[in-house]
Protein backbone atom coordinates (compact mmCIF):
# COMPACT_ATOMS: atom_id res chain seq x y z
CA UNK A 1 0.00 0.00 0.00
CA UNK A 2 1.07 3.59 -0.62
CA UNK A 3 0.88 4.33 3.12
CA UNK A 4 3.67 1.82 3.71
CA UNK A 5 6.13 3.67 1.52
CA UNK A 6 9.35 4.83 3.06
CA UNK A 7 8.87 8.53 2.28
CA UNK A 8 12.03 9.41 4.16
CA UNK A 9 14.09 7.50 1.60
CA UNK A 10 12.00 8.92 -1.26
CA UNK A 11 12.80 12.42 -0.02
CA UNK A 12 16.46 11.52 0.41
CA UNK A 13 16.65 10.18 -3.15
CA UNK A 14 14.92 13.33 -4.43
CA UNK A 15 17.56 15.49 -2.73
CA UNK A 16 20.38 13.34 -4.08
CA UNK A 17 19.20 13.32 -7.69
CA UNK A 18 18.97 17.12 -7.56
CA UNK A 19 22.58 17.21 -6.36
CA UNK A 20 23.64 14.79 -9.11
CA UNK A 21 22.23 17.11 -11.75
CA UNK A 22 23.72 20.25 -10.19
CA UNK A 23 27.11 18.57 -9.84
CA UNK A 24 27.28 17.78 -13.55
CA UNK A 25 26.28 21.29 -14.54
CA UNK A 26 29.02 22.69 -12.28
CA UNK A 27 31.70 20.67 -14.05
CA UNK A 28 32.67 23.48 -16.45
CA UNK A 29 32.32 26.51 -14.18
CA UNK A 30 33.11 25.51 -10.60
CA UNK A 31 36.36 27.46 -10.65
CA UNK A 32 34.66 30.69 -11.73
CA UNK A 33 33.78 31.81 -8.20
CA UNK A 34 34.15 30.62 -4.62
CA UNK A 35 30.50 29.71 -4.20
CA UNK A 36 30.45 27.38 -7.21
CA UNK A 37 33.83 25.97 -6.18
CA UNK A 38 32.70 25.07 -2.66
CA UNK A 39 29.33 23.83 -3.88
CA UNK A 40 31.00 21.47 -6.35
CA UNK A 41 33.38 20.11 -3.69
CA UNK A 42 30.59 19.76 -1.16
CA UNK A 43 28.31 17.85 -3.54
CA UNK A 44 31.01 15.62 -5.00
CA UNK A 45 32.28 14.46 -1.60
CA UNK A 46 29.08 12.54 -0.87
CA UNK A 47 26.36 12.66 -3.53
CA UNK A 48 27.32 9.46 -5.35
CA UNK A 49 28.24 7.55 -2.16
CA UNK A 50 24.84 8.51 -0.72
CA UNK A 51 22.97 7.75 -3.95
CA UNK A 52 24.67 4.35 -4.15
CA UNK A 53 23.99 3.70 -0.46
CA UNK A 54 20.27 4.28 -1.08
CA UNK A 55 20.40 2.00 -4.12
CA UNK A 56 21.87 -0.71 -1.88
CA UNK A 57 19.21 0.00 0.74
CA UNK A 58 16.53 -0.82 -1.84
CA UNK A 59 18.42 -3.84 -3.20
CA UNK A 60 18.07 -6.22 -0.27
CA UNK A 61 15.89 -8.58 -2.29
CA UNK A 62 17.94 -10.91 -4.45
CA UNK A 63 17.00 -11.01 -8.12
CA UNK A 64 17.65 -13.77 -10.62
CA UNK A 65 20.21 -13.22 -13.36
CA UNK A 66 17.34 -13.08 -15.86
CA UNK A 67 15.64 -10.22 -14.00
CA UNK A 68 18.91 -8.36 -13.55
CA UNK A 69 19.59 -8.56 -17.27
CA UNK A 70 16.07 -7.35 -18.01
CA UNK A 71 15.98 -4.56 -15.43
CA UNK A 72 19.55 -3.25 -15.72
CA UNK A 73 21.75 -4.72 -18.45
CA UNK A 74 19.29 -4.43 -21.35
CA UNK A 75 18.45 -0.80 -20.36
CA UNK A 76 22.20 -0.11 -20.20
CA UNK A 77 22.57 -1.32 -23.81
CA UNK A 78 19.51 0.65 -24.94
CA UNK A 79 20.71 3.89 -23.35
CA UNK A 80 24.22 3.38 -24.77
CA UNK A 81 22.67 3.20 -28.23
CA UNK A 82 20.56 6.30 -27.54
CA UNK A 83 23.63 8.21 -26.35
CA UNK A 84 25.59 6.99 -29.39
CA UNK A 85 22.99 8.36 -31.81
CA UNK A 86 22.70 11.57 -29.78
CA UNK A 87 26.47 12.12 -29.85
CA UNK A 88 26.66 11.30 -33.56
CA UNK A 89 23.63 13.04 -35.07
CA UNK A 90 22.80 15.80 -32.58
CA UNK A 91 26.19 16.75 -31.17
CA UNK A 92 28.06 15.75 -34.35
CA UNK A 93 30.89 14.28 -32.34
CA UNK A 94 33.08 11.46 -33.58
CA UNK A 95 32.39 8.44 -31.42
CA UNK A 96 31.74 4.71 -31.54
CA UNK A 97 29.37 2.36 -29.81
CA UNK A 98 31.75 1.62 -26.94
CA UNK A 99 29.67 -0.88 -24.99
CA UNK A 100 32.70 -1.70 -22.85
CA UNK A 101 33.27 1.99 -22.09
CA UNK A 102 30.05 3.55 -20.78
CA UNK A 103 29.21 7.04 -21.98
CA UNK A 104 28.74 9.82 -19.45
CA UNK A 105 26.78 8.61 -16.40
CA UNK A 106 25.66 5.26 -17.84
CA UNK A 107 28.42 3.53 -15.88
CA UNK A 108 26.00 3.55 -12.95
CA UNK A 109 23.60 1.13 -14.64
CA UNK A 110 26.44 -1.25 -15.39
CA UNK A 111 27.67 -0.89 -11.81
CA UNK A 112 24.21 -1.64 -10.39
CA UNK A 113 24.03 -4.76 -12.52
CA UNK A 114 27.41 -5.98 -11.25
CA UNK A 115 26.75 -5.05 -7.60
CA UNK A 116 23.38 -6.79 -7.49
CA UNK A 117 24.81 -9.81 -9.26
CA UNK A 118 27.82 -10.36 -7.00
CA UNK A 119 26.58 -9.15 -3.60
CA UNK A 120 24.84 -12.40 -2.47
CA UNK A 121 28.14 -14.22 -3.04
CA UNK A 122 30.41 -11.43 -1.83
CA UNK A 123 28.64 -11.36 1.54
CA UNK A 124 29.80 -14.92 2.15
CA UNK A 125 33.39 -13.66 2.40
CA UNK A 126 34.53 -13.12 6.02
CA UNK A 127 34.76 -9.40 6.89
CA UNK A 128 33.36 -8.51 3.46
CA UNK A 129 33.05 -4.78 4.26
CA UNK A 130 36.78 -4.57 5.01
CA UNK A 131 37.51 -6.58 1.87
CA UNK A 132 35.39 -4.22 -0.26
CA UNK A 133 37.17 -1.13 1.09
CA UNK A 134 40.53 -2.82 0.50
CA UNK A 135 39.61 -3.52 -3.14
CA UNK A 136 38.54 0.10 -3.52
CA UNK A 137 41.93 1.23 -2.26
CA UNK A 138 43.98 -1.23 -4.29
CA UNK A 139 42.31 -0.52 -7.64
CA UNK A 140 43.81 2.97 -7.42
CA UNK A 141 47.24 1.42 -7.93
CA UNK A 142 46.20 -0.20 -11.20
CA UNK A 143 46.96 1.40 -14.56
CA UNK A 144 43.68 0.03 -15.97
CA UNK A 145 41.84 2.45 -18.26
CA UNK A 146 39.54 4.39 -15.97
CA UNK A 147 36.45 3.83 -18.12
CA UNK A 148 36.91 0.18 -19.13
CA UNK A 149 33.66 -1.45 -17.92
CA UNK A 150 33.83 1.20 -15.18
CA UNK A 151 35.75 -1.32 -13.06
CA UNK A 152 37.63 1.33 -11.01
CA UNK A 153 34.38 3.07 -10.07
CA UNK A 154 32.55 -0.21 -9.49
CA UNK A 155 35.18 -1.24 -6.95
CA UNK A 156 35.61 2.19 -5.37
CA UNK A 157 31.90 2.77 -4.70
CA UNK A 158 31.00 -0.82 -3.82
CA UNK A 159 31.40 -0.38 -0.01
CA UNK A 160 28.63 2.23 -0.04
CA UNK A 161 26.29 -0.16 -1.88
CA UNK A 162 27.13 -2.94 0.55
CA UNK A 163 26.44 -0.67 3.51
CA UNK A 164 23.02 0.11 2.09
CA UNK A 165 22.12 -3.57 1.77
CA UNK A 166 22.80 -4.23 5.47
CA UNK A 167 21.18 -1.05 6.79
CA UNK A 168 17.65 -1.42 8.15
CA UNK A 169 14.98 1.25 8.61
CA UNK A 170 15.23 0.82 12.37
CA UNK A 171 18.97 1.55 12.22
CA UNK A 172 18.33 4.89 10.53
CA UNK A 173 15.62 5.83 13.04
CA UNK A 174 17.94 5.10 15.96
CA UNK A 175 20.70 7.13 14.36
CA UNK A 176 18.49 10.15 13.70
CA UNK A 177 17.29 10.13 17.32
CA UNK A 178 20.78 10.76 18.70
CA UNK A 179 20.92 14.41 19.85
CA UNK A 180 24.72 14.44 20.28
CA UNK A 181 25.29 13.87 16.57
CA UNK A 182 23.07 16.84 15.69
CA UNK A 183 25.19 19.15 17.84
CA UNK A 184 28.45 18.41 16.07
CA UNK A 185 27.08 18.63 12.50
CA UNK A 186 27.55 22.44 12.06
CA UNK A 187 31.14 22.24 13.30
CA UNK A 188 31.93 19.31 11.01
CA UNK A 189 30.45 21.04 7.95
CA UNK A 190 32.40 24.25 8.60
CA UNK A 191 35.65 22.32 8.99
CA UNK A 192 34.84 20.37 5.84
CA UNK A 193 34.27 23.51 3.75
CA UNK A 194 37.47 25.09 5.02
CA UNK A 195 39.41 21.93 4.17
CA UNK A 196 38.05 22.09 0.61
CA UNK A 197 39.52 25.57 0.20
CA UNK A 198 43.00 24.54 1.30
CA UNK A 199 42.97 21.02 -0.19
CA UNK A 200 45.98 20.55 -2.53
CA UNK A 201 44.14 17.98 -4.66
CA UNK A 202 41.49 18.16 -7.36
CA UNK A 203 37.95 17.21 -6.42
CA UNK A 204 38.49 14.25 -8.77
CA UNK A 205 39.77 12.37 -5.71
CA UNK A 206 36.09 11.62 -5.03
CA UNK A 207 35.31 10.37 -8.54
CA UNK A 208 36.68 6.85 -8.02
CA UNK A 209 37.67 6.45 -11.67
CA UNK A 210 41.21 7.87 -11.61
CA UNK A 211 44.26 5.99 -10.40
CA UNK A 212 46.73 7.54 -7.98
CA UNK A 213 49.33 8.27 -10.65
CA UNK A 214 46.92 10.36 -12.72
CA UNK A 215 46.05 12.29 -9.54
CA UNK A 216 49.77 12.96 -8.99
CA UNK A 217 49.88 10.86 -5.83
CA UNK A 218 52.15 8.10 -4.67
CA UNK A 219 50.44 4.79 -3.95
CA UNK A 220 50.67 5.25 -0.18
CA UNK A 221 49.53 8.86 -0.39
CA UNK A 222 46.70 7.92 -2.74
CA UNK A 223 45.40 5.14 -0.48
CA UNK A 224 45.51 7.44 2.55
CA UNK A 225 43.59 10.18 0.69
CA UNK A 226 41.09 7.64 -0.65
CA UNK A 227 40.56 6.24 2.83
CA UNK A 228 39.84 9.80 3.97
CA UNK A 229 37.36 10.13 1.09
CA UNK A 230 35.63 6.98 2.30
CA UNK A 231 35.39 8.41 5.82
CA UNK A 232 33.95 11.70 4.55
CA UNK A 233 31.48 9.86 2.31
CA UNK A 234 30.22 7.60 5.11
CA UNK A 235 29.88 10.53 7.53
CA UNK A 236 28.10 12.74 5.02
CA UNK A 237 25.60 9.99 4.21
CA UNK A 238 24.57 10.12 7.86
CA UNK A 239 24.76 13.89 8.27
CA UNK A 240 22.59 14.68 5.24
CA UNK A 241 19.86 12.44 6.63
CA UNK A 242 19.25 15.01 9.36
CA UNK A 243 18.19 17.52 6.69
CA UNK A 244 15.61 15.22 5.08
CA UNK A 245 11.92 15.28 5.95
CA UNK A 246 10.45 12.02 7.18
CA UNK A 247 6.90 12.45 5.90
CA UNK A 248 5.38 12.64 2.43
CA UNK A 249 6.10 15.93 0.65
CA UNK A 250 5.21 17.55 -2.66
CA UNK A 251 8.50 16.27 -4.08
CA UNK A 252 8.49 12.73 -2.65
CA UNK A 253 7.42 11.35 -6.03
CA UNK A 254 10.74 12.51 -7.51
CA UNK A 255 12.50 9.99 -5.28
CA UNK A 256 10.48 7.28 -7.01
CA UNK A 257 11.48 8.56 -10.47
CA UNK A 258 15.21 9.14 -10.23
CA UNK A 259 16.09 6.92 -13.20
CA UNK A 260 14.61 9.14 -15.94
CA UNK A 261 16.21 12.20 -14.34
CA UNK A 262 19.57 10.42 -14.15
CA UNK A 263 19.43 9.22 -17.76
CA UNK A 264 17.96 12.21 -19.59
CA UNK A 265 19.66 15.10 -17.78
CA UNK A 266 22.92 13.77 -19.20
CA UNK A 267 21.71 14.38 -22.74
CA UNK A 268 20.85 17.97 -21.85
CA UNK A 269 24.18 18.53 -20.14
CA UNK A 270 26.13 17.11 -23.08
CA UNK A 271 24.25 19.38 -25.47
CA UNK A 272 25.22 22.47 -23.46
CA UNK A 273 28.76 21.22 -22.94
CA UNK A 274 29.58 20.49 -26.57
CA UNK A 275 27.31 22.87 -28.51
CA UNK A 276 27.43 26.05 -26.44
CA UNK A 277 29.70 28.01 -24.09
CA UNK A 278 26.91 29.04 -21.71
CA UNK A 279 28.00 26.81 -18.83
CA UNK A 280 31.60 28.02 -18.94
CA UNK A 281 30.40 31.63 -18.67
CA UNK A 282 28.42 31.19 -15.44
CA UNK A 283 30.13 33.42 -12.85
CA UNK A 284 28.07 36.10 -11.12
CA UNK A 285 25.79 35.36 -8.14
CA UNK A 286 22.70 35.83 -10.32
CA UNK A 287 24.06 33.52 -13.01
CA UNK A 288 24.95 30.94 -10.37
CA UNK A 289 21.45 31.02 -8.92
CA UNK A 290 19.90 30.81 -12.39
CA UNK A 291 21.99 27.73 -13.12
CA UNK A 292 20.79 26.03 -9.95
CA UNK A 293 17.20 26.99 -10.78
CA UNK A 294 17.65 25.54 -14.25
CA UNK A 295 18.85 22.26 -12.71
CA UNK A 296 15.77 22.15 -10.47
CA UNK A 297 13.54 22.68 -13.50
CA UNK A 298 15.32 19.84 -15.31
CA UNK A 299 14.65 17.54 -12.39
CA UNK A 300 11.00 18.59 -12.46
CA UNK A 301 10.79 17.97 -16.21
CA UNK A 302 12.52 14.60 -16.33
CA UNK A 303 10.66 13.26 -13.29
CA UNK A 304 7.36 13.84 -15.11
CA UNK A 305 5.13 10.91 -16.00
CA UNK A 306 6.11 10.77 -19.66
CA UNK A 307 9.84 10.28 -19.00
CA UNK A 308 9.13 7.88 -16.15
CA UNK A 309 6.99 5.80 -18.50
CA UNK A 310 9.79 5.72 -21.07
CA UNK A 311 12.38 4.37 -18.63
CA UNK A 312 9.82 2.01 -17.13
CA UNK A 313 9.05 0.63 -20.58
CA UNK A 314 12.75 0.13 -21.37
CA UNK A 315 13.32 -1.71 -18.11
CA UNK A 316 10.44 -4.06 -18.95
CA UNK A 317 11.27 -4.90 -22.54
CA UNK A 318 10.01 -8.38 -23.36
CA UNK A 319 12.86 -10.83 -23.90
CA UNK A 320 11.80 -13.96 -25.83
CA UNK A 321 14.83 -15.82 -24.48
CA UNK A 322 13.30 -15.64 -20.98
CA UNK A 323 9.66 -16.05 -21.98
CA UNK A 324 9.47 -19.69 -20.89
CA UNK A 325 11.27 -19.12 -17.58
CA UNK A 326 9.61 -18.25 -14.35
Shape annotation: globular
Mean pLDDT across residues: 93
N-to-C span: 25 Å
Compute the CA-based radius of gyration: 20 Å
Total strands: the figure is: 0
Number of helices: 15
Structural class: mainly alpha
Strand content: under 5%
Stretches where pLDDT falls below 50 for ≥5 residues? Answer: none
Largest beta sheet, briefly? none
Number of folding domains? 1
- Taken in chain order, the helices and strands follow as HHHHHHHHHHHHHHH
The helical percent reads 55-70%
Short description:
The model has no long low-confidence stretch (mean pLDDT 93).
Describe this structure in words.
- By secondary structure, this protein is an all-alpha fold.
- It has one domain.
- It has 15 helices and no strands.
- The protein has helices spanning 7-25, 34-44, 47-57, 65-90, 107-122, 128-138, 151-166, 169-176, 179-198, 219-241, 252-255, 258-275, 278-281, 285-302, 305-314.
- It is globular.
- It starts with 6 loop residues before the first helix and ends in a 12-residue tail after the last helix.
- The mean pLDDT is 93.
Please give a handful of descriptors for the protein shown.
326 residues, mainly alpha, 0% strand
Helices and strands in order, then pairings?
Layout: H1 7-25, H2 34-44, H3 47-57, H4 65-90, H5 107-122, H6 128-138, H7 151-166, H8 169-176, H9 179-198, H10 219-241, H11 252-255, H12 258-275, H13 278-281, H14 285-302, H15 305-314
Helix pairs in contact: 1-2, 1-3, 1-12, 1-14, 3-7, 3-10, 4-5, 4-12, 5-7, 6-7, 6-10, 12-14, 12-15
Amino acid sequence: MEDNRDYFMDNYKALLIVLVVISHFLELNNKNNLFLYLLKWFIVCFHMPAFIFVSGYFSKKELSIEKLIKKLFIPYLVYEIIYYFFYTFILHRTTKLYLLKPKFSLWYLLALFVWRLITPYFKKIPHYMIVSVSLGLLIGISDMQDNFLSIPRILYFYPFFLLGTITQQVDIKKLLSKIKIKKIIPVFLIVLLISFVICPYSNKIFYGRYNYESLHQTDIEGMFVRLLCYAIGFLMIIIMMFFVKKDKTSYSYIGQRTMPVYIFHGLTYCFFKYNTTILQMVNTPIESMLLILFCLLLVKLYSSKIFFNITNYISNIHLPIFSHQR
